[in-house]
Amino acid sequence: MNPEVYRPKPETKLTPFTVKEVLVAGNRGPCGGVNMAIEAANQVLDIVDGREPVYSNWDIVNNNPVMNRLNSRGLVSVRNNWDLVPDNSIVFFSAHGVPPDYHKIAAEKGFLTIDVTCQLVTVVHTRVKNTQAQGKHIVYIGKDGHPETVGVLGELDEKNRTFIEPDTDINTLVLPRDKEIVVYSQTTLATDEVKDTQQKLQDKFPGIIIPNRNDICYATDNRQLAAEDLLDNHTVDFLLVAGSSHSHNSEELRKKAEKKGIPSALVDKPEDVQREWFTKGVEKVGATAGASELEEDFQKILDIFRNEGIDPVVYLPQIVPEKDMTFKLPQGDIIALKERYKTL
Ligand code: SF4
Predict the structure, then answer these.
(1) Which of 64, 89, 97, 301 lies most in the core, judged by the most C-beta atoms within 10 Å?
(2) Is 148 noted as a catalytic residue in this protein?
């Protein structure tokens, strides 16, 4: 028998980064709606304290690291499959909002719901409902299958709505002629794409009503402006976006770079970063984070550069000063949850 001989593995020499500077967008990271939803989830999980599973119709926020932490504390995301949720369960409605049908299901199955729908999404629900009640037809611009789109469209009778995506061919679009038409959109689309689609709609259907207010939310808009600033005024060679692949607003940030022919990537953890992105001549990296990305997770990604000794990492000022947007927690739902345990 050959004795095992210890042979140290030859050290692999890593190709050094060529990056000299990392510029971090001033407008980035979690919005008021995401902060509220995560705070509510943590409060609920603290109250429940592992006594029963807590369900959510969708990821409470579209961010994998956040959801992994919440899942490890007992939150189960069922991706709208109600068969997975026993009667009388505690159920979150996610920040994206839900169609009215879900409230009916919740009532039938006796769910105790914790509704963390973002208040800016609720505004759009209210506006489309009111518009329908006035006998008008709604054109809704959104991303097919996105939970926010599913929620808003669910408010409307099929005959009263037309769903389009920003790249829908408006030339072939047919709309009712006997009704006023009003256009709304998902809150997390690219502002410029929505404006472009609205213009095409107005060109083809003069008289179409586009309410003055933009449905794109402040967080989406500001993060897009800051990403554009990195690309246009700071001439970065690469745009690194922190966020999950199913986060629409994060992907829209990455697409800003793609449209300008600048290499880019969307990652939600340091392990997703490929070394070769930064070893082949890229000197100036722009970094930003989508509206559901927490600063602590973003900083873990930036550590990749710090660990390479890249100094400086420069924090740019905000392009648009962001007011402190604190959204209300669903206090009534949380009180009902506390009552549930008092009466057990
Ligand atoms: S991205 Fe905008 S609409 Fe979505 S949760 Fe945040 S603030 Fe609300």
Answers:
(1) 97
(2) yes
Residue type, 286: G
E strand or H helix that includes residue 264: strand 264-267
**pLDDT band per the 50, 70, 90 thresholds, residue 232:** very high
- CATH code: domain 21-30+218-315 is 3.40.1010.20
Is-same-fold flag (21-30+218-315; 120-204)? yes
Q: What is the pTM of this model?
A: 0.91
Summarised one tens digit per residue, pLDDT across range 94-113 is 999 999 999 999 999 999 99
Q: Which DSSP symbol is given to 270?
A: G
CA 175–ligand 1 middle distance (angstroms): 30
Ligand 1: residue of 36, 115, 184, 187 to mutate (most ligand atoms within 8 A of CB) is 187
Expressed in angstroms and rounded, the spacing between residue 121 Cα and the centre of ligand 1 is 7
Name the fold adopted by 120-204: Cobalt-precorrin-4 Transmethylase; domain 1 (3.40.1010)
Predicted confidence at residue 1, as pLDDT, reads 46
The region of weakest confidence among 5-19, 151-165, 319-333 is 5-19
Residues 296/215/331/62 CA torsion (nearest 10 deg): -40
Which CATH number is associated with domain 32-117+326-342? 3.40.50.11270
- Name the nearest CA neighbour of 183 among 133, 128, 143, 220: 128
Domain boundaries defined on the chain: 21-30+218-315, 32-117+326-342, 120-204
